[in-house]
Specification:
By secondary structure, the chain is of the alpha+beta class. It is 55% helix and 8% strand. The protein has 23 helices and eleven strands. Strands 1, 2, 3, 5, 6 and 9 form a six-stranded mixed sheet that branches. The protein has a three-stranded antiparallel sheet with strand order 4-8-7, with no helix packed on it. Strands 10-11 form a two-stranded antiparallel sheet. A hairpin with a 4-residue loop joins strand 2 and strand 3. Helix 9 packs across helix 16. The chain starts with 7 loop residues before the first helix and ends with a helix. Bound molecules: ligand L6B7KVET and flavin-adenine dinucleotide (FAD). Flavin-adenine dinucleotide binds next to strand 1, helix 11 and helix 12.
């Protein structure tokens, strides 16, 4: 990137950096070629004049904003298609495609559900014949789809969905119906005015029998005219906290008929005469959700890297207050409280990326086994995906909010982009499985694992530590990274044991297990969180250690500092748990605190270099505060001038309302 016009603070910060930023960029991308390909396509997209907005999107009306998002995303699809035809893009990862979408619209693409859930469901839940028919059309965007599962009355409890698909053997069709107001599909992204097809999750009935929820491939609009088909009631659900351009919709069916072969039949089937063939495992219907929970970690890592880049660069540019009399005002990044706000968010982005890759590899392996008929590891994968999605989304939202606060008043400006990123990340705590609901799924797995501990069974890998820490009351503490990881495992084992005991204590004669479960559920969520933190610490440390050995010593040192900061930060945050479940002393905690402050100081000179290592183009960052050149104040003023209110010196409301009010006051 050109160094001219860069503010003096950022020039100095970049000179201070002790490692090669390019090396970090390649590490994050997965190699030099991957970086080159990502940059090439980002360059083509971001410099296309059709992508640039004259009026920033936040000034547009709700309707205009959607139309603009569609226009620009269609250009993006066109460019990507042209490029993928021209080249093989071996290293062009799906995550890079997703990154580029932020350079096209600031908020969410109305096509996100097409790529993120419609295509994955077709790929994973259709039989071969169905796949051959639908997937190429969906990939080329000949048809546009979404994933319609949630209803007005039910989101978490999928078994409670009310939309019905009743098989009619006379015509070999399913008849879809929305029996009540609460059975309307509600929320699917792109459903309102973008998609012409969707996956509908509905209760299957055949030969008078109920077979539970199944996915169906449903055309909802005419391909030529886009008019909703007869029997389809579809529309938009209205403005939200964020996701303004996601085009979330509602959908109702009135005796809407689809062919029998539109039920996705990889797992379960309905034969021509209405005979139902059961799936090997009915939870395979939930497969797309597992996939998305896994890839959400990459999304969170990316959004955190954007927010981190904005807040760290801004903190290097911004000067405020004097630490010592008669000395210049400090760069706010030199206040240690500011470093405390910033650096954990930077390190968390790296942690989520490496743990995300580990989870992705686990997913690929388990999915391959499922393909061969072996479901043994599905419960463990489900438990992992649930708690990691839940905890990481909540942590990411907390970190983005902290980044926003770290930018003071300017962080509150939409033009900083932190409020939009905040909305995007906050939504992920709820969608694809609400936080507590997912944490309780992991808790189910932990309770079963504890039964295994009591029965002296061999546990699956991610919970094997439970056996190790099941007997000792307080585990021996050591002020090392290995000691911290053991400490987190001891806390998770202790909390799992207590939640298990709490259920038993609530199980008085006459009490159902489910009621005892509900009474103990605060402790169950706490056990799930502790288990998840143990995993985040163990995997991130081992992965960052491994990666540090593949790069130059200078970069390796920085990676280990970031990883150790993460472990130390969370040890201090969870000191209460460590005091309960390990022999940690107040002196040990003081040492951890001192090491934490040492790590902040070690990371400080490299802070700008580390966020430069995320290599996020200004167009993808979309921020007045975070641009590469650091021209914060100029950009804030330039953006303010774009306000339509500044187009005229006196707004007509003065003559209409304010002046009459003033005149009345005179009387
Ligand atoms: C390298 C690749 C890089 C790619 C990077 C690309 C980056 C791009 C990022 C793009 C991001 C994409 C974003 C997409 C945007 C998504 C937008 C949002 C979309 C949605 O929200 S769709 C709707 C989602 N809805 C939910 O998630 C609902 C949540 N509810 C449930 O999942 C279930 O109902 C629940 C809560 C699990 C309960 O189900 P239920 O049937 O009641 O089950 P039980 O509680 O009775 O449990 C029974 C038994 O089954 C087990 N179980 C449950 N679920 C599963 C599962 N999914 N898999 C396996 N097993 C499961 C459960 O544990 C129980 O087991 P037991 O043995 O204990 O009996
Ligand atoms: C931005 C956004 C995009 C979305 N996109 C889509 C989409 O494309 N397609 C789609 O199908 N859906 C989509 N959704 C819907 C989303 O998946 C659901 O909102 C989510 O699964 C939560 O369900 P719910 O809204 O019914 O919440 P509820 O389940 O009603 O949750 C409300 C409260 O009840 C609690 N609760 C519920 N059940 C339990 C329980 N068993 N134990 C303890 N507490 C419980 C929850 O913890 C929460 O505090 C989207 C949602 C959002 C916000």
């Amino acid at each position: 990137m050109a160094e001219h016009n860069v503010c003096v603070e950022l020039v100095r910060e970049r000179q201070k950096c002790t490692f090669e930023v390019q090396e970090l960029i390649h590490l994050i991308d997965g190699g030099i070629t991957a970086t080159e390909e990502r940059r090439e396509v980002e360059n083509v997209v971001c410099t296309d004049p059709r992508i640039k907005d004259v009026v920033p999107e936040e000034y547009l009306s709700h309707k205009e904003r959607y139309e603009n998002a569609i226009r620009k995303n269609c250009i993006l699809q066109e460019i990507l298609k042209k490029y993928t035809e021209k080249r093989t893009w071996d290293n062009f990862r799906p995550s890079n495609k997703y990154r580029i979408s932020s350079g096209v619209v600031k908020d969410i693409s109305p096509f996100m559900l097409h790529t993120g859930m419609f295509i994955p469901t077709l790929v994973n839940q259709s039989d071969d014949e169905q796949k051959a028919k639908w997937v190429p059309k969906a990939m080329s965007m000949e048809i546009i789809g979404t994933y319609a599962q949630t209803e007005l009355g039910h989101g978490s409890f999928i078994r409670g969905l009310e939309t019905t698909a009743t098989y009619d053997p006379n015509t070999e069709e399913f008849v879809l119906n929305t029996p009540n107001l609460t059975s309307y599909k509600w929320w699917p992204g792109g459903l309102a005015h973008t998609a012409n097809h969707c996956i509908v999750v509905a209760q299957l009935y055949s030969k008078g029998q109920h077979y539970g929820v199944h996915p169906f491939f449903v055309q909802i609009r005419d391909i030529e005219t886009h008019v909703p088909l007869p029997g389809i009631k579809v529309g938009e659900i209205g403005p939200k906290l964020g996701f303004q351009t996601a085009n979330n919709g509602f959908l109702g069916f009135e005796n809407f008929r689809i062919p029998r072969r539109n039920m996705l039949m990889k797992n379960a089937q309905v034969l021509k005469d209405g005979t139902y063939i059961k799936s090997k495992n009915d939870k395979l219907t939930y497969g797309t959700m597992v996939f998305v929970r896994v890839i959400i970690l990459f999304d969170l890592a990316f959004e955190l890297s954007r927010a981190a880049t904005i807040a760290v660069r801004y903190s290097a540019v911004r000067h405020q207050s004097q630490l010592k009399a008669n000395e210049p005002e400090l760069q706010i990044i030199d206040y240690v409280t500011q470093q405390h706000k910033l650096f954990i968010g930077v390190s968390t982005s790296h942690v989520f990326r490496v743990v995300g890759l580990w989870l992705w590899n686990t997913y690929v392996k388990v999915n391959a086994d499922i393909g061969k008929g072996n479901m043994d590891q599905l419960p463990e994968l489900h438990a992992l995906a649930c708690c990691l999605k839940a905890v990481c989304s909540r942590d990411a939202a907390a970190r983005v909010e902290e980044f926003r606060l770290a930018c003071g008043g300017h962080g509150f400006m939409t033009s900083s982009n932190l409020p939009i990123i905040n909305g995007i990340v906050s939504a992920s705590i709820t969608y694809e499985g609400e936080f507590s609901v997912l944490m309780l799924q992991t808790a189910r797995f932990l309770m079963k694992a504890w039964n295994g501990v009591l029965a002296r069974k061999t546990l699956t890998p991610t919970v094997s530590y439970l056996s190790k820490f099941s007997n000792s009351d307080r585990v021996q503490w050591a002020n090392t990274t290995a000691g911290i990881i053991s400490g987190f495992q001891a806390a998770a084992a202790g909390k799992t044991k207590e939640a298990y005991a709490a259920i038993q204590s609530y199980l008085k004669p006459g009490t159902d297990y489910e009621d005892a479960w509900n009474s103990a559920s605060v402790q169950l969520v706490s056990a799930s969180e502790a288990h998840c933190r143990a995993i985040l610490c163990e995997i991130s440390w081992s992965e960052m250690q491994r990666l540090s050995k593949t790069v130059s010593p200078n970069l390796g040192k920085v990676l280990l500092e970031l990883a150790e900061l993460y472990l130390t930060y969370w040890s201090l945050e969870k000191r209460g748990d460590l005091l309960m479940y390990t022999t940690i002393s107040t002196a040990d905690i003081a040492k951890l605190q001192a090491r934490y402050e040492e790590l902040l100081a070690l990371i400080r000179p490299n802070a700008v270099g580390i966020v430069d290592g995320f290599d996020i183009r200004d167009e993808i960052l979309n921020s007045t505060l975070g641009a590469y050149d650091g021209r914060v104040y100029e950009r804030l003023m330039e953006e303010a001038k774009k306000s339509p209110l500044n187009a005229e010196p006196v707004n007509e409301s003065f003559h209409k309302y304010i002046k009459p009010l003033m005149l009345k006051a005179k009387l």
